[in-house]
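job 3f2a | input accepted
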Amino acid sequence: MTQRAWPAWARASEILDLLRLSGPIAISRLSWMLMGLTDAIVLGQVKGQEHELAFILNSWLPIGVTLGFGMGILLGVQVLTSELVGRGEEHLSGRIFRRGMGWAVLIGLGVTALVYFIAAPLFQLLFVEINPNENISASMTPEQFADETALITQILSLSLLGFMISTVCSYYLESLRRPLIVTITSYLGVGVNLVIDLALVLGWWGMPQMGGEGVAWATVGSRWAITFALIGFVIWLTPALTPSEPGPEDEAKRQITVGGGTAISNVAEWGGFNLTYTIAAFVSVAVNAVYGYSVQVMGFCFMFFLGIGTATSVRVAEHVGRGNMQGVKDASRLGVAATFVLGTFLALLIYAFKDGVALLLVNSEASIDGTLLAPAIAAMLIYAALATTFDGLQATASMALRAQGVVWLPSAIHIASFFALMIPLCYVMSVTMGRGVQGMMEAVTITLLVAGGLQWGLLEWKTARREVRHAV
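job 3f2a | predicted structure (472 res):
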């Protein structure tokens, strides 16, 4: 009997290459969520500051949307640089970096001004004029909630220019296969963030306890520390400033087009998720906090998937650059398989340790308006375990598609899933049906199942069509 061979994408060399690239990227991306988790844990362990997390969560609505837009637009730096690397022309990649950096500065300045000035009217509209519940908390009015959220948003807006610049640097270094530098720098930022948290949230070293405002200043300080460090590494270790011949006439247009689709998807996904915090706050501040902590755990897991997705995107783009269609197919399928394996492992971990995770996030006695947070969070982590694999799947598949030049269909799926489906579903299940935080988590789980399945199906279909066209 003939022994069945492993598929080409499952060869040990392919798996090792994916792990070699995705491991450092995932670890560096984890630093983003590790900062957020550090903030949440510090706030959750300080008695009397549990409600401050709600201000932070809701402040990320305009911040997250603008970040997602900017990071999407700038993704072209990574895709086009990877293609040059695949052709052995990385010495010409400086023009890609410089073009991306120019866009980063313009976008960063623009979104900083936009977010700073719209914060107050935006949250007045959401929590005072639209909010159907005047009794969101026994300790504050909707007006007070809106004012404090707006103030924290304005502080966070001061980090946006740094986010855009550091994103270009990260994309460029990763596409040149130097992800470890980004990882080390990111954890430098985690350390800076923790130090500022200890000073301004816990009040160490004689500093005032500033609650959510202290967390916002920690984010600003850590982001600019990361930005300056990455700029130094790019200048020192890459051909970023090396003069290079002009690229093809359509290169600039293609660079921003590839990123444009991702920007739309990010706005849909990040904006959709951040709007769910607003819907949770319509129910109560307690529901907002429990839901927010639960989604933070999902977000932490998502960073592992983002590592796989980014590495898959780089590998697919390299094969596109070489004209190797079988390599495109193999790299895409390996990324999906790795996502399923990792997702199953993470889901089992979340379920097995849900009680311990909840107690890590908040003090055992932490409560808001009579709701004990730890047991409520532990109960919701069951949904996080169910949803996390498909959250990763929609990310990996959509990033592999964009690396092939398939831009707008993944964006359409994101818009349909995270706006047309998730937002109404969250409102109906949590507010209209009165299911509270359980309704929120059920709606998010359903949305991710749909988004993940659709993106995966589209990837298989498009990759198969590309293979057929190339064969003909």
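job 3f2a | The mean pLDDT is 86.
job 3f2a | closed
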